[in-house]
Amino acid sequence: MNKLKEFYSQRQLHWMILPGVAFMIVFNYIPIYGIIIAFKNYTVVDTISSAEWVGLENFKIIMQDSFFWEAVRNTMAISLLKLGLGFFIPIVLAIMIFEMSDGRLKKFIQTVSYIPHFFSWIVLGGMMISWLSTDGFFNQIFMSVGLMDKGVNHLLNPNEYWWIAVLSDLWKEVGWGTILYLAGMSRIDPTFYEAARIDGATKITQIRKITLPLLTPIISLNLILNVSGILGSNLDQTLVLMNTQNQNRSEVINSFVYKMGLVQGDFSYATAVGLGVSIISVILLVITDRVTRKMNDGKSVIL
């Protein structure tokens, strides 16, 4: 009875969250029913219930598909490179910004680093295509310093694509990635640093003994999110930068699913790939959570 009274007394708050709950149910939970397409031979002339059951046949086809495994290789390579650089550089940049004493310079650097995040990959991809062209910005720089004799179109070289994808993504997101860390550092008690300075601790020591340990929960959370999403490479970036010359190094799982499902109409195959990726992502999420518990005295930051 007390619970019902408490619920009624907060009815205005419950009305406020009702649209969000309804959105989640309609767009996140009801579509789960469509997962059974992965176990059927579904076409556009069928309904989900009338399509023929084929069991694990779609998954057997996936295991034998060389194009799928090529997409897996590219996804893993690009994601691991992004994880290696995109996870640590925002931490370093956030600490550098936090330690700046010049307020105007700090705001300027923050603004400049944030700006690319707010542009779509259509805009940034167009810029990258122009800059990496034969007579583009980067070739002009490379030739002026003697690194190249003549310009080349770097996006036509498949061997360069992985690094192009990683570095362009880093340029777009590194500033935005510092927000959580800066917010966490702003909540650190300044007396910790004052006491450390009195004891003669250098800046590096303060960062190592105070800043990083107190940022451990945020670092752990970001690590979990990054590792669990390692099989999901940026579809927008891929569709903009991919071409017929670099496709064997630029095709990732997301673009492969997009082509198989929406372009070729093989919905069952695409759903099976998506289901497999989702299951592996959940497994990675749980494993990473267990590992990061050791960084947080046995406590989980998500579960």
TrEMBL record:
<keyword id="KW-0812">Transmembrane</keyword>
<feature type="transmembrane region" description="Helical">
    <location>
        <begin position="76"/>
        <end position="98"/>
    </location>
</feature>
<comment type="similarity">
    <text>Belongs to the binding-protein-dependent transport system permease family.</text>
</comment>
<feature type="domain" description="ABC transmembrane type-1">
    <location>
        <begin position="72"/>
        <end position="288"/>
    </location>
</feature>
<keyword id="KW-0813">Transport</keyword>
<protein>
    <submittedName>
        <fullName>ABC transporter permease</fullName>
    </submittedName>
</protein>
<feature type="transmembrane region" description="Helical">
    <location>
        <begin position="12"/>
        <end position="39"/>
    </location>
</feature>
<dbReference type="InterPro" id="IPR000515">
    <property type="entry name" value="MetI-like"/>
</dbReference>
<dbReference type="GO" id="GO:0055085">
    <property type="term" value="P:transmembrane transport"/>
</dbReference>
<keyword id="KW-0472">Membrane</keyword>
<feature type="transmembrane region" description="Helical">
    <location>
        <begin position="118"/>
        <end position="141"/>
    </location>
</feature>
<feature type="transmembrane region" description="Helical">
    <location>
        <begin position="212"/>
        <end position="232"/>
    </location>
</feature>
<dbReference type="GO" id="GO:0005886">
    <property type="term" value="C:plasma membrane"/>
</dbReference>
<dbReference type="InterPro" id="IPR035906">
    <property type="entry name" value="MetI-like_sf"/>
</dbReference>
<keyword id="KW-1133">Transmembrane helix</keyword>
<keyword id="KW-1003">Cell membrane</keyword>
<feature type="transmembrane region" description="Helical">
    <location>
        <begin position="267"/>
        <end position="287"/>
    </location>
</feature>
<dbReference type="Pfam" id="PF00528">
    <property type="entry name" value="BPD_transp_1"/>
</dbReference>
<dbReference type="InterPro" id="IPR050809">
    <property type="entry name" value="UgpAE/MalFG_permease"/>
</dbReference>
